Amino acid sequence: MAEERIQKILNYMREETYRPMTLKELEEAFGASEPQTFTDFVKTMNDLEEQGLVIRTPCGSLWSP
After folding, report:
1. Which SS3 state, helix, strand or coil, does residue 63 take?
2. Which residues have CB under 8 Å from 45's CB, separation 6+?
3. Domain of life, per the record (predicted)?
4. For residue 13, what are the contacts with CB-CB under 8 A and spacing of at least 6?
């Protein structure tokens, strides 16, 4: 399940039309508004950032190189 979620996020962020988005915007795009879902989503995004698969811009937006 986690691998599927990671792949879905990365695919979304690598689309040609993707623009860097804040965590809040990504949360809304993925419907992660329930407390547990949101916590899991934030953890996944932090893990992706630590692995270098997602970059946080100086203004806090996220994108995938």
Report:
1. strand
2. 9, 23, 26, 54, 62
3. Bacteria
4. 54, 62, 63, 64
